Amino acid sequence: MTAPLLFNLDSDPDLATRLRNALDAEAGALEQRHFPDGESYMRVHSDPKQRDCLILCNLYRPDERVLRLLFLSHTLRELGARQVGLITPYLPYMRQDKRFHPGECVSSRPFAQLLSAAIDWLVTCDPHLHRYDSLDQVYTLRSQVVHAAPMIAQWIRDNLNQPLLIGPDSESEQWVAEVARLADAPCQVLTKERRGDYDVSVSLPNVDRWRNHTPVLVDDIISSGRTMLETISHLQSAGLPRPTIIAVHGLFAGDAYRALSAVSDVVTSESIPHPSNGISLSAALADAARHLLDGPE
User: Fold this and answer.
1) Whether 252 and 181 share a structural domain
2) Within this chain, do residues 156 and 259 fall inside the same structural domain, yes or no?
């Protein structure tokens, strides 16, 4: 059987290489540039006819990348690809899952419709499923979700002594508890009140019995970092050791990373390329993609 083609659309080249090797895929040749008016030019130099095509496109800045992703998937299908799959370690527009105020766009739904029409299947890592039970509630394509909990737990076991896992809010409870179970570590989950993007308060954790443990703050997404900073302030006041922060997706808006790294050790998965990356996802992403490649066309 002909090897699949893997196209790297402006994403981590090291991750692309490891995925390509794990999947025995061939690198797809792609030419991209911009016209003087800013419009995108794209040309596929590898023949995709009757071949499985994979696109690695990390969508952590979706508004900059989605149009080129649509152009590429459309072109591959038009040129005869058997199937077109997307590997995006970070899936955006999942947090806008409810209309909180009149007139708001529930953007997770139109975004899901857009991708579902453009590709045959999707591999991602720990999408922010809060009010949705699964991707199938909004996506109409085949999908595989990679869970980072086993890799995070392994990193904790390998690198930290006497960890106390702390989830910053109720949304994190189920999967922070899973990381704690896999790492064989105690955990606490706090309560959070958000009054704005940068105005967050969290409950004071019960730490008296854990003073000799290393606090490990675990969350799926770090954006503004205000929840983590508020929690760290409480931990410092309680006299606990310098904490470690672990996130699957490190967005780090504004000065979030600088502020967090000044008061904690910060580790993220490679879902979004960043200096804090320390947890590999490539093997799990490749396994998920292989499963979908072997499935129905």
Assistant:
1) yes
2) yes
